[in-house]
Amino acid sequence: MTTLDVDAVKTFVTIAELKSFTRAAEALGTTQGAISVKLKRLERQVGHRLIERTPRLVRLSALGAEFLAPARELLAAHDRAVAGLSPARRRRFSLGIATHVGGAEVPTLLARLHAHDPALTIEVRLDDSRDLLDAFDRGQIDAAIIRREDDRRDGEMLATDHYGWFATPDFVHRTGEPLRLAASSPSCGVLNIATRALAAAGIPWTETFLGCGSFAVADAVAAGLATSVFSCRLAPAGTIEVSRRFGLPALPPSEIVLLSALSDARSRVVLKTLVGAFREHHRLPADRAAEEIRAITEAAGS
């Protein structure tokens, strides 16, 4: 019976998630040479190539893709077993995620954090980027994934998000009339960017719906009451991008960043796990969003 090296399996999973030997080595606190040796050891143990590597690409082989889920389960079981033997008290980790940022990847992030450290109690707060930034600065949360606000340059960049104007297909806006907007809060940073763009374009607007939270805003837009600005990844079901239809201004992309006040070794590993899971889940939707925005912009200029 083949006995797998848990450390080698963790190396394989890290490479698969980050799709880079360089980033995997950084996340594991070792060198590219060391992780290459561990991967080769694992491939010898299973008798198959798991990672295909070229000068421009790192990807899973067919058997590697099949092995990834069981490998994650093995690591989770190993961590639970180790945690069960440890007398250490459970740790708490408070994470803020901006409502204009968090989407379908949130369950993935939480599952990955739990699998990494089953003894970790995770507290999640969903709020506007500005409110989360204030909470982080006051020490009320350990880390936050937010839109980069103003000229603040701290934090680790995770991805670039693209925004558009969304409404239902039958939403009506007549030239010269104030654009009906829905917003979650007067202090919402995305709303402020949108209204500044409208002002620069000379387009009047009125706040038709002010809801409590982004879900209420999404419901109002999906009901046809107003238009609003959403990340192209998070637009409400049944809505379409309407900037070209109504002559609305293009919106600048936004950087998504991770802020953290944690510095101990164990917490740094948690954060690296969080960063890797976010980037893995966000990469393809973000690329598609960029293509959609580019097509809309080119069409508007033609």
Automatic annotation (TrEMBL):
Instruction: Give yes or no: UniProt keyword Transferase.
Output: no
Q: Per its UniProt entry, which superkingdom is the organism in?
A: Bacteria
Keywords associated with the record:
DNA-binding, Transcription, Transcription regulation
What PROSITE patterns does UniProt report for this protein, alphabetically?
HTH_LYSR
Describe the location of the HTH lysR-type domain by residue ranges. 4-61
The keyword Glycoprotein is assigned to this record: no
Record InterPro entries: LTTR, LysR_HTH_N, LysR_subst-bd, WH-like_DNA-bd_sf, WH_DNA-bd_sf
Q: Which GO terms describe its molecular function?
A: DNA binding; DNA-binding transcription factor activity
- Tell me any Pfam family this protein matches: HTH_1
The similarity annotation says: Belongs to the LysR transcriptional regulatory family.
Q: What does this protein do?
A: NodD regulates the expression of the nodABCFE genes which encode other nodulation proteins. NodD is also a negative regulator of its own expression. Binds flavonoids as inducers.
Please identify the protein, giving its name as recorded: LysR family transcriptional regulator
